Amino acid sequence: MTISEVNGLLYKPGHPRDRLEHALRITALSAGWHRSFEALLTQSVEGGKTTGNAGLTGMVYPAPAWRGFRQFRLLRKTFEADRVTSLTLEPADGNPLAGYLPGQFIVLRMQPRSAPLLLRSYSLSGRPNDKRFRVSIKRELQGAAGRYVNEELSEGDLVQASAPRGSFTLAPGDTPVVLLSAGIGVTPILGMLHALAADKSPREVWWLYGARNSHEHPFAKEVRELLGLLPHAHSHIRYSAPGPTDRQGVDYDAQGHLDPAVLQTVGLPVEGDFYLCGPSKFMSNLTAGLAGRGVSRRRIHTETFGSGPSITPGIAVSSGRPPHLPEGPQGTGASVTFARSGLNVRWNPRFHSLLELAEACDIPARWSCRTGVCHTCETGMISGSVTYQPSPIDEAADGNVLLCCSRPASDIVIDL
Ligand code: FES
User: Each residue of 225-261: pLDDT tens digit?
Assistant: First the structure.
């Protein structure tokens, strides 16, 4: 194969299987190229169940079950712990859901009586099924969404929800599964535990969770029951500030935070698959700790709340400011909602792309080529449509958008 063909095989649409297999036999290609072609080959073996370019993104994106938002009725509102409330939602039209993968999230569209429309992403915390969703929401001190959920939203009310999305999902296999979470980061991880328990999985399952104390420890009983259904389950709970009535050995196992030292203390299997979700310091400490213990990066799966850290080729430096409206005159065009960042902005044609708008709002965004080639900027588009200029070389996955070369063609909601 020529260098030109190898390049085209990755970046251009098509990716014929026989040529991928041929390229994988070229030992002169680096491990990175081999990984990309293996991802494309796996995607092609799946026979069109996923779209997009897995060789570039490293992800497979099942197409969302529906575009935009669907009407749901609030069936149940459940107090779980201090400032944490679960919402159980069922489709208002009574039709079944398409099911979802443990670890995925939805975006809720909520309209308070006397405040602007709210769009927020929440992980699905219940057992994956085709009848209802459960999300669990923590009320932040100044949070508009938490206030609306606690004070206004009542059982029987209608809200709108996107289809489940996200690639932070439990991978099949027979390796040990290590589920590590802290605070409200428990939600996607709990969805995974539900799936393992529903299958009575024979895999070794480790549950490690960190909270302040029992008042801020949601799902304690539910988790105990789920672990009880698994033949090879282990659990370790840490409280950083146990209350006077919290019992060591009953409510929690040890005092302190879940930190890299705990990985050694409890004897986690290095060959396992690790799923992490929690505050950013927790994530960075434990990710580094796992890598330091020899866990392969490919086995460490993480989910962050809010937008993820930006990746740039060293030109732009993140300001560290929280997301805000762009400086200067505001636009009057289509509404652009960054769902994870909780920011809504009117499009202004002075920006050349959605990526430029995100940067003007200090919303961390990933990019490399800025011309629709590398797919580094590929992001979920929950609703709406865009126009491209220039057109991408290969298309984004169904339901995603390439931010660097697109502008809104209608009101849009982006998973950023
Ligand atoms: S496709 Fe490369 S940054 Fe957008």
Answer: 999 999 999 999 999 999 999 999 999 999 999 998 8
- Give residue-wise pLDDT tens across range 13-69: 989 999 999 999 999 999 999 999 999 998 887 766 678 899 998 877 777 889 899
pTM above 0.70, yes or no: yes
| Residue 339: domain span | 335-414
Count CA atoms within 13 Å of residue 46 on its CB side.
15
Question: Residues 232, 281: one domain?
Answer: yes
Same domain for 157 and 182? no
How many angstroms does the Cα of residue 82 sit away from the middle of ligand 1?
Answer: 42
Query: Ligand 1 atom closest to Cα of 370?
Result: 3
Contact, 388 vs 372, CB < 8 A? yes
373 CA closest ligand 1 atom index: 1
Q: Which one of 161, 187, 218 terminates a domain?
A: 161
| 254-255: strand order across its sheet | 254-255, 233-239, 205-211, 177-182, 273-277, 300-303
The domain tally of the chain equals: 4
